[in-house]
Each structure stands twice: as structure tokens, then as C-alpha cells.
Amino acid sequence: MRPIAPLFLAALILTGSLAAASPVVIAHRGASGYLPEHTLEAAAHAHALGADFIEQDLVMSRDNVLVVLHDIHLDSTTNVARIFPARARADGHFYAVDFAWHELKTLSVNERIDRQTGHRVYPDRYPLQPGPFRLCTLEEQIGLIQGLNQSTGRNVGIYPEIKAPSWHAKEGKDLGTALLALLERTGYNAPAARVFVQCFEAAELKRLRFELGTKLPLIQLIGLASGKDPAAGYKAMLTPAGLAEIASYADGIGPHLGNVLSDFGRPEGPRISSLAAEARALGLHVHPYTFRADKLPAGAPSMASLIRWGVEGTGIDGLFTDHPDLAVATIREMMLSRPRPLVLPQAPTR
Ligand code: CA
To answer: Is-cis flag, bond preceding 239, omega within 30?
Structure first.
């Protein structure tokens, strides 16, 4: 990626090509900075904290239920090893796809643990003590969000992610078709619906668009070019030609934050890549992940500065965050301090 040309960015801002509207705050796995990820409690809290969208990662149970879960296995966020000790595969993992939904819903959900070290991934978050937390289905979570939308008068959207579709296909599972059917049934069936569908695998997004014919907004997730899976093709996606290709089947990108901003320790501020500006110029949304107050990139002084750099420096129009309240507060401050056109009172007409 080339460094962004300052004049190009200035021109984009002056012509209003960058998001004039407030960037959207996407609660990453719910308000996962405060409650165990992907639980109904985390979704309800994200709604209360002012998120514009709430994210749901999706896997499938043995009996074809779409379950809100980040990993294809249950090891790191549930007590599956205690409840079903004999159900691991040969590799030691307990896969959600090996369980029926009535079994999955008996599991307790806990804060994320690194199974290799046995330590909590985020030590200052919700305690590990047994709590009331359970897995939920996508349908249950949609019902909760729509119920809260009605009782609060807000219109919070959903942001489902199809996890590992090619792995699921080998297991005989088709998440994309099931997701589109559920979205149709629950009212997310028009291009303007309050939903984004996201996936790391380009082939799945193309299948949704061209084979399954969805008109819903699609987001191509992009990991770091230096990431562990070179076959994923992120490096090619990050080039101008790659972005043009994405624009042919998707409506936006969800890049790793490091693809947009990096080198936070520099006295002159972080390095800003040309990615967001190039994508916005193609009409693509740019929603990077993940803004975490308790795991800032090295050298970043605060969550607020990170958000300001992202929104003012790169022109992103949304962001994934574990702490939606902090993002909402910073963005609100930024919007209030933006210069507004002077409107003179009109003389009363007689
Ligand atoms: Ca996700």
C-alpha cells in the first residue's frame, strides 16, 4: 500500500466524498468489552450503549441451526469439555457442528480463555466465575434486537458474519443459504435493510451475490497482508485492482485496523495508508476492526485518539469495537466540534 497523498485526502474532504454523516459504530461480538462475547446480554448491553449495529459471528449446529459463536469450536468460550468430555475430535477440539442445538444450549458461556496458556485473553474484563450466560441462535438475537428497537424507538442493525464457509461446506453445511432465508423471514430483505453481511472468503460473497442473488449489502473482510493464511489473498485485495474487483460483488470492506493505520509510536502520528481513501473513492464502505480500549495497538495513546485518527485521518465510515460506548462518545464529540454553516434567522413575514 502507498502512503496516502495529503492533497488527495484534502480534496476528498473538501468535496464531501468522505463520510459527511456520522460513522457507524458496530458492536464487535456485542458489547464484548463488558460481557462475554456473543451472549444475549452482550447484545442487549451494546444496544443500550448506543451501537448502530451489533455483530453476530455464525457457525452451524449438527441440526442446521445458525448459532452465534466466533470460533468453529467451543473450547475457548464455553464449558463444553466439562459437560461433554467424550465429544472432542481427534485433534482435541469440540466442534459446534458436532452438537445439536438442544445440546449446545445447555453449555455455559464464559469470558474468552487462551486454551494454550489457560489464561484469560482480556484479564480486566468480566470475571470468569460461572454466570447466567448461554449460547444463542441468530434468530433469538435478531428477536432481542428487534424487540429493543421497538421498545426504545431506535433502529439498531445487525451485522452477521459467515464463519469459515469452505470448512462448513466440507462438513455438509451451507451457512449462506440458511442465513439469507432467515434474513428474508425476519424482515431484512431489501438493499436498504439495516443489515450488512460479512465474510473473509471472497468466493462465498460472490456466491451470495451471483448464485443466490442477494441484494443485501455485503462486506469483504480483509486480514493483514502479512497474516498467517497467504492463501486468503489479502495482499491482492489491498491493491487498487483488488479493491476494484471487490467493488464488483460487495458494498464495502472490513479491513484489519493495521491495514489502515500503523506505526503509532511515530512523533508525527501514525502511518495512514491509502486503502480507505481508495476504497471510498470506489464507493465502498470501510469498516475496520477492531477498536479495543484494553488492547490498543502499540504506541497508540488512547481509544479516543485511535478513533479520531481513523475517522478524521483516513475517512472510514464505520468501525468495529468491543467498547461501543467509548466510540459513540468520541464520535459524538467529533461531530459536535465540526464547523457548521452559519444559518441566519429569517425575518418574520407579515
Ligand atoms: Ca466477526
So the answer is: no
Task: Please give the distance of CA 236 from its chain centroid, rounded to a whole number.
Answer: 21
CA distance 28 to 293: 13
Q: Does the annotation count 28 as an active-site position?
A: yes
In the numeric block, which cell numbers belong to residue 58? 455464525
Over residues 188-229, the pLDDT tens digits come to 998 889 999 999 999 999 999 999 999 999 999 999 987 666
289 within some domain: yes
Cα–Cα distance measured from residue 43 to residue 21, given in angstroms and rounded to the nearest whole number: 24
Give the CATH number for residue 326: 3.20.20.190
Out of 38, 45, 47, 70, pick the active-site residue: 70
Residue 77 inside a domain? The answer is no
Structural domain range at position 214: 6-71+136-337
Judge if pTM exceeds 0.85.
yes
In a domain? residue 121? no
Residues 248, 240: Cα–Cα separation, whole Å: 13
Is 93 one of the annotated active-site residues of the chain? no
Concatenate the DSSP letters of all residues of 204-219 into one string: HHHIIIIIS---S-EE
Coil vs helix vs strand at 240:
helix
